[in-house]
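Sample intake sheet
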Amino acid sequence: MSSIDEIRETRIKKLKLLEEKGINAYPAESKRELSLAEAADKFDRFEAGKDTKWIAGRIMSIRGQGAIIFITLYDGTGTFQGLLKKDVIGEEKLNFWNEVVDIGDFVELQGTFFKTNRGEKTLEATDWRMLSKSLRPLPEKWHGLTDVEERYRKRYLDILMNPELKDLFERKAKFWDATRNFLKKEGFLEVETPTIEVTTGGAEARPFKTHHNDFDLDVYMRISVGELWQKRLLAAGFDRVFEIGRAYRNEGSSPEHTQEFTNLEFYAGYMDYKQGMEFTERMLKKVAQETFGTLEFETHGQKVDLSQKWERMAYVDTIKKMTGVDVLNAGEKEMTAKLDELGVKYDGNNIERLTDSLWKYCRKQIVGPAWLIDVPKLVSPLSKAKPENPLLTERVQLLLAGAEMTNGFSELNDPVDQGERFAQQKRLIEAGDEEAMMPDDEFVEMLEHGMPPAFGFGMGERFFSFLVDKPLREIQLFPLMRPRQE
């Protein structure tokens, strides 16, 4: 029998002792009057030895034995010390405590407040109750969970034993709150759009496929946060809309890619990509400052200062400068030869995929912050073409430490042009490209009714992950895990 099994068996015996005494080890009600943070903050208001209160939490440590026991409670708001003394709480209650209580249990204490000789705020208990009996031990305090897979699988223990990780997720919530508040103050309406679609739109990615039983219809989990739906709302008369939600892509995993992630997308009528760059730069700096209190970061071995001037880099010119290839005029043979020479792995041999592979090679060498501009139409099926060069689009992406953080462009609202680009994507799908964008005839029909000029913008939690210099899985509360192999 393993040590964990032995510990569990011993704790089950303690659970039975509670039951024999007629005590519910998992009551629904609690007498708690103060959170532990409130107990600490309001401590000086209580008259020492007189004001009686109930506090509660998980036992994180037990020190001492016999007539005097000190414990540390934790309830998510903070920690607080409790003291159980035989001559105060009574011998019977203290003895029963010693019989049935373990580190990891949730308990509540009633008592009065005082400071120890070392000045530590403490509640001296006159009574106690079990709130939840733990049957398995907590990880060892100083080492916690060291196996990465075990950490992700038992994230509740990982967070419990690692205050820095708890702070990370609270900071992530603050990041999205700051984003949401900024947009609302700028007149954006928060909306919800479908997560199950007949055709996926808004990105080039392989979707998850499922079946709608009631309609007897194959459907897909969305790969963007409602891009084509939000544009329909612009046509409906909403001036500015946004959504923060989950997107799903049935693709490979990497430090920068997961199959399920949170994204922001917004669409602003009567704004073009030049105005959009200025607007989003202001937003991103504001969000970073509110979340972290600084605009200077170290990430992926690079020092990044968001307060400096954001350079603007043209897509075609950058690739030509770094590789010598003019992607607007080069053929498949020249592109594959260069990729082979550079040792770059690539999927597919159509011009679109080869162009994207060359760009990704160049992108990894750019520290930023910089705006990528003038992206070719071939790899931008939803963005408006530049009037002075129809082969390029009014698309912009923030580059940071070798990766793309955001995506935005003057939205294509020409129904004829959009129809032609969807036709090109359809040909790519028919040729076997699983990441090409699915055509949406009803979206083209909407454009024929008319949609105002607009700027659209997308930002995922990758931006946050880069600012904290963590892989994407580390900043997700519960990343997908394979089932345990028996």
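Comment: The mean pLDDT is 93. The chain has two domains: 3-138, 158-310+368-475.
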